């Protein structure tokens, strides 16, 4: 009887994986649509870069809170549906907030961004977690494919906004509002797909193990996990310190309008998509090696965002090249990091909790960086300007990469285990 149940479940898991990939795609498309549109609107309302950073940081704050809570819960279809409904309602209200000004706009936008982060995480954490259980023997490949879906969503976000911006110039409607209303419609559509096609049984895999309380204090006593998570957090800080304000920089310094900014934002995600594909297929390098390369390449990309500080002209072509390099380095890192967390957990005899911990730290680590990065970036840019800030963030990431390379011993310990097996 158990064999029949398992066979039936395996038959449906590929369909469930497609729905999960759609969820990841949609969650990231809606996130990316906000990046080029929201900061210029906030500035139009009379707020400084620091004000932009504060409003934008409420989103990752919600992600962090939700990640912590979800990391201790059994993933369910109901949680995902609640996240989808939450995103639908918030998108509509956020579109209406366009008509507000002053403190009311600031407060409402901050609150909505907070709950938007919670709803988004309610979609993503269970999706990554259940993928880790469904495909425990193929986790690197499947997570990399989810990151491909993520990056495709990050491509679709600016593309949709760019098309809406062009249509807005023709038919005279507000791009910010209608982008959000369109997002609400898409969330309604995917909620229907989840209700109809996402197999409820996949959430009951290893339920007994998932009910065991995860002690994150004990988890972070694992040296390799601590070092890896810390570096991932700082990667998010340095990357988001610049990314949040790039749309303003493109408009004010490079005279790039909103529509073209949307398409430029696609360069990074397009490269990241193929980076995730490479990670899913390659067998030559270890996850630890790939992640180390990502940190160094990411540092180079941040340096190029401030061309005037390294003797290069302030050219839009250099920014485009920086986005290509950033996609190779920073954009590929998330496809590596969850399998790397899972590998570390399994090596330290925490296999039953590896998927939950990996999915939680994947979202929480980047969200922490997304929370602190815009605040730090806003402060630095207000004081020294965008180009100098890019050099500072690049230098910081180089230091983090060097420390990680010299303190993470994942590959060395794995080689030691393999050597002992050969000896015996």
TrEMBL record:
Subcellular localization, as worded in the UniProt entry:
Membrane
Please give the GO cellular component terms listed in this UniProt entry: membrane
Q: Which Pfam families match?
A: MFS_1
InterPro entries given in the database record: MFS, MFS_dom, MFS_Vesicular_Transporter
Keywords assigned by UniProt?
A: Membrane, Transmembrane, Transmembrane helix, Transport
Q: What is its main location?
A: membrane
* A molecular function GO annotation: transmembrane transporter activity
What residues does the Major facilitator superfamily (MFS) profile domain cover?
Answer: 315-424
Q: Which superkingdom heads the taxonomic lineage of this protein's source?
A: Eukaryota
Membrane topology, as annotated, equals: Multi-pass membrane protein
Membrane-crossing segments per the record: 17-38, 50-70, 79-100, 106-128, 149-172, 178-198, 219-242, 262-280, 292-310, 316-342, 354-380, 386-404
Designated name of the protein: Major facilitator superfamily (MFS) profile domain-containing protein
Q: What is the lineage of its organism?
A: Eukaryota, Sar, Alveolata, Ciliophora, Intramacronucleata
């Amino acid at each position: 009887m158990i064999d029949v149940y398992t066979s039936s479940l395996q038959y449906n898991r590929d369909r469930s994986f497609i729905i999960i990939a759609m969820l990841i795609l949609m969650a990231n498309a809606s996130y990316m649509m906000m990046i080029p549109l929201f900061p210029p609107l906030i500035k139009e309302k009379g707020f400084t870069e620091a004000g932009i950073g504060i409003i934008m940081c409420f989103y990752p704050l919600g992600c962090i809170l939700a990640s912590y809570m979800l990391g201790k819960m059994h993933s369910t279809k109901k949680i995902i549906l609640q996240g989808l409904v939450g995103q639908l309602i918030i998108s509509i209200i956020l579109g209406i907030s366009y008509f507000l000004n002053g403190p009311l706009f600031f407060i409402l936008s901050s609150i909505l961004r907070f709950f938007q982060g919670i709803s988004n995480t309610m979609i993503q954490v269970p999706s990554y977690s259940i993928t880790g259980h469904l495909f425990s023997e193929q986790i690197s490949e499947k997570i990399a494919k989810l990151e491909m879906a993520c990056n495709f969503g990050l491509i679709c976000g600016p593309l949709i906004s760019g098309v809406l911006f062009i249509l807005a110039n023709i038919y005279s409607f507000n791009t910010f509002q209608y982008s959000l209303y369109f997002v609400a419609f898409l969330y309604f559509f995917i909620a229907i797909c989840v209700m109809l096609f996402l197999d409820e049984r996949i959430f009951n895999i290893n339920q007994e193990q998932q009910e065991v309380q995860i002690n994150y204090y004990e988890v972070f006593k694992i040296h390799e996990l601590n070092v890896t998570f810390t570096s991932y957090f700082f990667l998010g800080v340095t990357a988001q310190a610049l990314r949040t304000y790039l749309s303003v920089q493109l408009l004010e310094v490079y005279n790039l309008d909103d529509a073209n900014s949307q398409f430029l934002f696609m360069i990074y995600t397009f490269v990241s998509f193929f980076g995730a594909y490479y990670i899913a297929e390659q067998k030559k390098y270890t996850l630890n090696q790939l992640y180390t390369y990502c940190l160094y390449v990411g540092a180079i990309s941040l340096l190029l965002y401030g061309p005037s500080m390294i003797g290069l002209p302030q050219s839009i072509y250099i920014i485009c090249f920086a986005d290509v390099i950033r996609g190779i380095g920073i954009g590929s890192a998330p496809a590596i990091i969850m399998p790397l967390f899972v590998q570390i957990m399994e090596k330290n005899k925490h296999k039953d909790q590896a998927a939950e911990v990996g999915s939680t730290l994947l979202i929480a680590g980047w969200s922490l960086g997304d929370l602190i990065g815009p605040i730090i970036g806003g402060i630095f840019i207000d004081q020294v300007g965008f180009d100098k800030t890019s050099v500072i963030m690049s230098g910081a990431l180089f230091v983090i990469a060097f420390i990680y390379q010299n303190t993470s011993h994942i590959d060395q310990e794995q080689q030691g285990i393999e050597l002992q097996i050969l000896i015996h």
